[in-house]
Amino acid sequence: MGQDYEVKLVRGIFENHGRLVDVFAGESAENLRSFTDVYSDPAYEVLWMTSHGEYDHFSPKNAQLVLGQGKTIAMDDLLECRLERADRRLLVLNVCDGGTHPGEGVLPRSRLQRKQATSWTG
Q: Which Pfam family, giving just one, matches this sequence (predicted)?
């Protein structure tokens, strides 16, 4: 699915349910500071990211999300972002290599999943 089509589809779904939608693309999405500011902003109930992911099969803990124009954010850096919400917020990552794992028979839980689950429950 193309990015423009996905933006139109996701925007339509959320707006049809009475939600405001902000789209960050181009330079606003490629700036690391802007991304972490938006990611940490408690005003957002859902963050939907369409991008590329980079997964190193020899060093899976070095997974990164591509922000654009050669700029990335490491999962460890994403884990360091503070989330100041009393309730749950959803993060949807539609990224290539987003479900990649080393193929050891089970799908491992990522540190991002554990961190967010812990921050929401305790």
A: CHAT
pLDDT tens-place values along the chain, 122 residues long? 577 888 899 999 999 999 989 888 776 666 767 788 888 888 888 888 888 888 777 777 788 888 877 788 888 888 888 777 777 778 888 888 666 655 554 445 555 555 554 454 44
DSSP string, 32-81: HHHHHHHHH-TT-SEEEEEEEEE--TT-GGG-EEEEETTEEEEHHHHHHS
Q: What are phi and psi of 102, to 5 degrees?
A: -70, 0
- Backbone dihedral angles phi then psi of residue 58, each to the nearest 5 degrees: -90, -15
Sign of CA dihedral 88, 41, 20, 49: negative
Rounded CA separation 57/28 (Å):
30
CB atoms within 10 A of CB 75: 19
